[in-house]
Inverse folding.
């Protein structure tokens, strides 16, 4: 996925479930990572950055601290005193991390969950907002849910984002998966703005034929009444969503309203087999 050096905050589902529970850390220390054979023994680099997978409780803690800095301290999403963004899904997931060689700090991350991890843990995060029982079983079994992506403000650029996608490609290959899915957030709850994005998705041919139902508590009232058939002007699509669409992702559900975080989520699905071969090779070579 391409991105500008001044790319917007890279973020997916800003989940209202992401509230720090002090009891979670002790449990994480004992059990992380789940299904360790699913974690590739791999790393790569680009310039001053290195990408790998969190393999220890200490590395997971670094990821959670970065997410706190971005989601809570920077964006103001429920800032609390524990200095970690942690939820019930984290210890059941695998986590990509990008580290800056110069400072040693973790500056980028992505959360990944397979069906195996979901079944042994609390399930998929997306299932909180969308009824995933309507997804084909093959997608769930051969899919990876992406979430909680973020990059530290001083490091938002092509290199870190490219390395994160390299890691996702490696994870797909290692676990023999085909699909990527998850919630992608718009930083608004305004029905007119959300409808404008939906119209852009539809005009670009990004709307899937089969629609994933929204859970009742996440429905957005008034969305249908402001949806028009005209392509709106001046739409600024978040960088991560734009990248998904450029790779061929489809919008399969939404809008789901996350009132706790002031965002609106769409469910997106990407078939890796549909990514142009020359593009796919960039991430798995």
């Amino acid at each position: 996925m391409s991105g500008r050096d001044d790319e917007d905050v890279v973020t997916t589902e800003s989940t209202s479930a992401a509230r720090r529970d002090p009891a979670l850390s002790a449990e994480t220390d004992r059990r992380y990572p789940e299904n360790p054979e699913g974690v590739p023994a791999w790393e790569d680099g680009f310039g001053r950055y290195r990408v790998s997978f969190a393999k220890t409780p200490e590395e997971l803690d670094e990821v959670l601290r970065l997410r706190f800095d971005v989601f809570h301290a920077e964006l103001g999403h429920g800032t609390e005193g524990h200095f970690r963004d942690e939820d019930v899904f984290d210890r059941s997931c695998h986590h990509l991390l990008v580290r800056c060689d110069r400072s040693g700090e973790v500056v980028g991350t992505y959360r990944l969950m397979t069906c195996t991890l979901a079944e042994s843990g609390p399930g998929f995060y997306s299932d909180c907002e969308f009824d995933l029982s309507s997804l084909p079983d093959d997608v769930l079994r051969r899919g990876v849910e992406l979430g909680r992506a973020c990059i530290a403000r001083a490091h938002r650029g092509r290199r870190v984002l490219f390395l994160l996608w390299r890691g996702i490609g490696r994870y797909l290959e290692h676990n023999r998966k085909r699909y990527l899915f998850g919630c992608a957030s718009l930083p608004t709850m305004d029905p007119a703005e959300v409808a404008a994005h939906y119209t852009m998705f539809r005009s670009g041919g990004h709307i899937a034929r089969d629609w994933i139902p929204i859970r009742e508590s996440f429905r957005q009232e008034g969305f249908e009444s402001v949806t028009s058939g005209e392509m709106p002007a001046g739409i600024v699509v978040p960088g991560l969503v734009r990248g998904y669409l450029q790779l061929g992702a489809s919008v399969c559900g939404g809008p789901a309203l996350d009132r706790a975080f002031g965002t609106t989520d769409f469910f997106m699905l990407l078939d890796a087999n549909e990514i142009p071969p020359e593009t796919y090779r960039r991430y798995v070579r």
Observations:
- The chain has one domain: 31-284.
- The radius of gyration is 18 Å.
